[in-house]
Write a structure and sequence with these properties.
The chain is globular. It contains 16 helices and no strands. It is mainly α. About 70% of the residues lie in helices and about 0% in strands. The protein has a domain of about 180 residues: Hypothetical protein af1432, CATH 1.10.3210.10.
């Protein structure tokens, strides 16, 4: 039986070069993870990318923060939102940019909406748990399907045909990817996330988001991302709206009230983010 790594390596032969993280985003993320780096230096780095700068300021000035005074500098925005939220915005900008280079407008818009919805639901599930960093949960869920961006970007025609069968016939997307392409978005995402140097915890959440019951570790991001993904499908942020049994909730100690509260708050924020990002 081939291992995940072997399947991931085979992917390189099939799809070619994987996209790199833009240098500005990579450096800004490194700086945000270093407590010795000043906000001024982080601002200078973000200002190197006008589109990223506009994205940060747009979120800071949105209804999510409800300020009367305009946020007109990146440093003010970072201080207002905090380092963790700023990292989430950078990852959102990166994810959207990648999906925009992926296939048809229908495909990249649907992938983007699913990513945002999954991220937001994970954020509010983390709030209900109170033991997991909400922005780490957001980023892990935001990126869980990033491998689809690789397939849609590098294998546009066959991936579009797969999506068409999923939408029109209710076919199993993961099975079709492996049958038609020889690899799935899980392997593609795994390889990309390793290349992008994400944490093992974030990569584990991506690897197990379709088979969480098989996971035997103790990383809470795994069940959170799996559950957030199902909630996004349930609420229609996917190629096909589907209902799943939310078995992860029991393992996390979340009941129907917790899930309802996370879903209600999440829907409001999802709509805001899709308007401003």
């Amino acid at each position: 039986m081939t291992t995940l790594m072997e399947r991931a390596r085979a992917l390189v032969d099939r799809v070619g070069e994987l996209p790199a993280v833009p240098a500005v985003v990579l450096k800004a993320m490194e700086m945000l993870n270093d407590p010795s780096v000043t906000v001024k230096r982080i601002q200078e780095q973000i200002l190197l990318d006008p589109a990223l700068t506009a994205c940060v300021l747009k979120v800071a000035n949105s209804a999510l923060y409800g300020l009367r005074k305009e946020v007109n500098t990146v440093s003010y925005a970072i201080n207002l939102m905090g380092y963790n939220t700023t990292k989430s915005i950078l990852m959102s900008h990166l994810t959207k940019s990648m999906y925009q280079a992926s296939g048809s407008a229908f495909i990249h818009n649907t992938l983007w909406k699913h990513a945002v919805a999954s991220g937001v639901f994970a954020r509010y599930l983390a709030d209900e748990l109170k033991t997991v960093n909400r922005e780490e949960a957001f980023i892990a869920a935001l990126l869980h399907d990033i491998g689809k961006g690789v397939l849609a970007r590098n294998l546009s025609q066959p991936f579009s045909q797969i999506v068409e069968k999923v939408v029109n016939e209710g076919a199993d997307e993961l099975h079709l990817e492996r049958q038609v392409l020889g690899v799935s978005h899980v392997e593609a995402g795994y390889l990309l996330m390793q290349q992008w140097r994400f944490s093992d915890a974030t990569i584990e959440a991506l690897v197990y988001h379709h088979n969480q019951p098989d996971y035997e570790g103790r990383n809470p991001l795994v069940p959170i991302v799996s559950l957030a993904n199902k909630m996004a499908h349930l609420h229609g942020y996917a190629f096909v709206q589907t209902a799943h049994e939310l078995v992860e909730a029991r393992g996390l100690g979340l009941d129907a009230e917790h899930l309802s509260r996370a879903a209600e708050k999440g829907e409001v924020e999802i709509n805001h983010l899709l308007e401003i990002l």
